[in-house]
Write a structure and sequence with these properties.
Layout: E1 10-13, H1 15-21, H2 29-40, E2 46-51, H3 64-70, E3 78-82, H4 86-95, E4 99-105, H5 108-115, H6 119-135, E5 139-145, E6 149-150, E7 154-155, H7 158-171, E8 175-180, H8 187-197, E9 206-210, H9 217-226, E10 231-234, H10 254-263, H11 272-286, H12 293-302
Parallel strand pairs: 1-2, 1-10, 2-3, 3-4, 4-5, 5-8, 8-9, 9-10
Antiparallel strand pairs: 6-7
Helix pairs in contact: 2-3, 2-11, 3-4, 7-8, 8-9, 10-11
The structure holds 3-hydroxy-3-methylglutaryl-coenzyme A (HMG) and magnesium ion.
Length: 303
């Protein structure tokens, strides 16, 4: 275990994708574009701007192509998008991506409910997408969902997660993001999983993606940093959730991660004030308060 905390971490802002995909309210394309442009100016280095899945499966992001065409590209930001298959990749390349995020689950049942395929049926699809995206010069991240618990099957073994991780690396991904899709994990589970994964992969190859259903995500991020992990996914205000994982709440809020890191002298490169402004913007568009405690505090200061 590495007990020393890092000097800096990297955040991928997934609000425009993971955040909005679960929203009943359709955010107008022009508002998404304005919001992503605001996020681009916060100092964040990667934004997952939308998802090229089937529009019937995720109607909230059915305008991915238009969003991709209209956003202003900041030279320091990698713009990535979620891609399930070759059709999604084709649309994403047309719309413009720097990074392709492929995804599957460590749990058979969640994989089937989420992408309508068994794990064995998913592998050849992802192998082709990863190879094509790499030959188009794109960065490729492989998401693995339900790495601790599945809403249908319960506990998932770390060996199963390692197995999927090894396969995605064999296919050519640049990094892997491990998802606590339904936000059940506590630091002890993080420790058990990372002890298994880090036997094979160095910490810089692993990103942690925590949903904050039970308020454990910050504790899990702290535990991950003790193991040398310095890359985390988070979403503005704590928006988010997987529509095919019942009960899953939003990602850990970027606002709360920034507060934690900056108070501890860990650099993120992100301007907290600009991030709050982008949070107020989307909060207003959605017409509801977002879960982030830090954002709630900032909102109360305004009134
Ligand atoms: P399917 O119905 O099995 O697809 O869905 P298919 O390959 O049989 O094709 C059926 C029709 O869909 C065909 O059209 C295809 O062309 C079309 P037809 O010939 O009937 O006219 N089609 C598409 N159209 C547009 N875009 C596409 C596309 N693909 C096929 N990309 C599919 C399979 C994967 C498409 C579907 O199950 C799907 O879209 N699932 C996405 C579910 C999703 O987005 N879930 C949330 C994201 S994952 C997540 O949140 C977890 C994560 O955050 C990490 C964590 O938290 O753990 C990443
Ligand atoms: Mg997620």
């Amino acid at each position: 275990m590495i007990s020393q905390l890092p000097d800096s971490i990297q955040i991928k802002e997934v609000g425009p994708r993971d955040g909005l995909q679960n929203e009943k309210e359709f955010v107008r394309t022009e508002d998404k574009v304005r919001w992503i442009n605001m996020l681009s100016k916060t100092g964040v280095k990667e934004i997952e701007y939308s998802s090229f899945v089937h529009p019937k499966w995720v109607p909230a992001l059915s305008d991915a192509r238009e969003v991709g065409r209209r956003i202003e590209r900041h030279p320091d930001v990698r713009y990535s998008a979620l891609i399930p298959n070759m059709k999604g990749l084709e649309f994403a390349l047309e719309a413009g991506i720097d990074g392709a995020s492929v995804f599957m689950s460590a749990s058979e049942t969640h994989n089937k409910k989420n992408i309508n395929k068994t794990i064995d049926e998913t592998y050849p699809v992802l192998r082709e997408v990863i190879a094509e995206a790499k030959s188009a010069g794109k960065h490729v991240t492989g998401y693995i969902s339900t790495v601790f618990d599945c809403p249908y099957e319960g506990a998932i073994s770390p060996e199963k997660v390692l197995d999927v991780c090894e396969t995605l690396y064999e296919f050519g991904v640049d990094d892997v993001s491990l998802g606590d899709t339904i936000g059940t994990a506590v630091p002890l589970q993080v420790e058990t999983l990372l002890q298994t994964i880090l036997r094979t992969f160095p910490p810089h190859k692993i990103i942690m993606h925590y949903h904050d259903t039970r308020g454990m995500a910050i504790a899990n991020i702290m535990k991950s940093m003790e193991y040398g992990i310095t890359r985390f996914d988070s979403s503005v205000g704590g928006l988010g959730g997987c529509p095919y994982a019942p009960g899953a709440a939003g990602n850990i809020a970027t606002n709360d991660v920034l507060y934690l890191m900056h108070q501890m002298g860990i650099q993120t490169g992100i301007d907290e004030q600009k991030l709050q402004e982008a949070s107020f913007f989307i909060q207003k568009k959605l017409g509801k308060e977002l879960p982030s405690k830090n954002l709630a505090y900032a909102t109360a200061q305004l009134s």
